[in-house]
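Tokens in:
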């Protein structure tokens, strides 16, 4: 109700496209509702310990939304049908999620008890603060750049953000299963296994995330030229800043999810509030001085503060030696990231076109990442155990 009136004026949308922008905001509000319905179904599936199904549904929904929007954009070259197609796909995704949940929960009868509901609502207060803080963190760069520099600059931010989203997706996917696992271990009082989960989980997450981050940074320039052309070349440097920030945050991602699983969302929220304020202040100041890059530098500065602050909170809740986390979890990812970036950059240096560079760099970086993970990232016997787990899971 408010967005169609307020947002076009706030972002200085030109009069020629203001009506289309207002309609798009209104339609997008409908998509948000559909996303909330689908998200609720996915959260319920996670409660049934079917994180795999919930993540798969999330992938289906995202693919439907992106694919529908792309098709509509190509066929109509119009903003409103594009947003409408995305909202329709989100509705389909919510229906699919609801059907899957009904099948998984078949035969289960829920009888809420007053003490349980009260306890859930008390715990949800911290979560109710944590989720919007995450949204603000993800959208802050666009908002600040849009207000200071206008909507055209937001397009550059969006190009860079979409490329770094690959790293963000890997970080989220590889660390999310820690939440239900840590909840179970904490309820059983198994602090030793919980500590091992923190160390081993952090190592696995960094091996995967830092590899993708290195690959994204090395191949950002040819990927952007191939995708949207030379006019967005400046976005390649922003991608590098963005993935460095994600790489820093990845060091504390498993620890943050452990805190979430053991019911310490309030501790995470307090750290988020401080770093969000730092991000806003630094980004706003630097955007006026150095332009779009200032927003990404501000996000990186906040990440440098946030990661060690979260790990300090984790140490108070989960007994683990910081030296073991450093040597056993963080250091193994360094040669993997370095080898991945070096292999990809070697291909970038060759006189090839953008598409061969992207394909060749991706293959070279992927092979280098795999080789160094086996050599430096895994302990003896881990590769076989991982393979056996995947086979059993399939």
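Residues out:
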């Amino acid at each position: 109700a408010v967005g169609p009136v307020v947002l076009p004026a706030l972002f200085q949308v030109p009069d020629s496209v203001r009506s289309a922008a207002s309609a798009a905001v209104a339609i997008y509000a409908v998509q948000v509702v559909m996303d909330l319905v689908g998200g609720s179904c996915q959260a319920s599936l996670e409660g049934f310990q079917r994180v795999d199904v919930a993540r798969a549904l999330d992938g289906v929904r995202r693919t439907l939304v992106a694919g529908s929007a792309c098709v509509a954009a190509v066929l109509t070259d119009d903003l409103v049908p594009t947003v409408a197609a995305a909202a329709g796909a989100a509705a389909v995704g919510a229906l699919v999620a609801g059907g899957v949940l009904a099948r998984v929960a078949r035969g289960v009868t829920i009888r809420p008890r007053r003490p349980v509901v009260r306890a859930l609502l008390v715990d949800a207060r911290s979560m109710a603060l944590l989720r919007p803080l995450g949204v603000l963190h993800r959208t802050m760069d666009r908002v600040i750049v849009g207000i200071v520099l206008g909507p055209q600059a937001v397009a550059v931010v969006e190009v860079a953000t979409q490329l770094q989203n690959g790293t963000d997706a890997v970080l989220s996917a590889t660390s999310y299963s820690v939440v239900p696992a840590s909840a179970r271990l904490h309820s059983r009082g198994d602090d030793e296994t919980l500590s091992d989960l923190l160390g081993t989980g952090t190592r696995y997450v960094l091996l995967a995330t830092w590899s993708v981050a290195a690959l994204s940074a090395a191949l950002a320039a040819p990927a952007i030229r191939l995708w949207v052309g030379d006019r967005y070349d400046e976005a390649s440097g922003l991608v590098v800043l963005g993935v460095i920030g994600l790489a820093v945050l990845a060091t504390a991602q498993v620890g943050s999810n452990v805190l979430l699983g053991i019911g310490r969302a309030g501790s995470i929220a307090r750290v988020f509030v401080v770093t969000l304020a730092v991000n806003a202040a630094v980004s706003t100041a630097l955007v006026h001085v150095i332009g779009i890059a200032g927003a990404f530098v501000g996000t990186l500065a906040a990440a440098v503060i946030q990661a060690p602050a979260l790990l300090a909170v984790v140490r108070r809740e989960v007994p683990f030696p910081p030296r073991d986390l450093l040597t056993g979890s963080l250091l193994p990812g360094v040669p993997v990231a370095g080898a991945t970036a070096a292999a990809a950059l070697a291909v970038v240096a060759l006189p090839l076109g953008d598409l061969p560079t992207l394909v060749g760099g991706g293959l070279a970086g992927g092979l280098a990442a795999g080789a160094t993970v086996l050599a430096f990232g895994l302990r003896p016997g881990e590769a076989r155990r991982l393979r056996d787990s995947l086979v059993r899971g399939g």
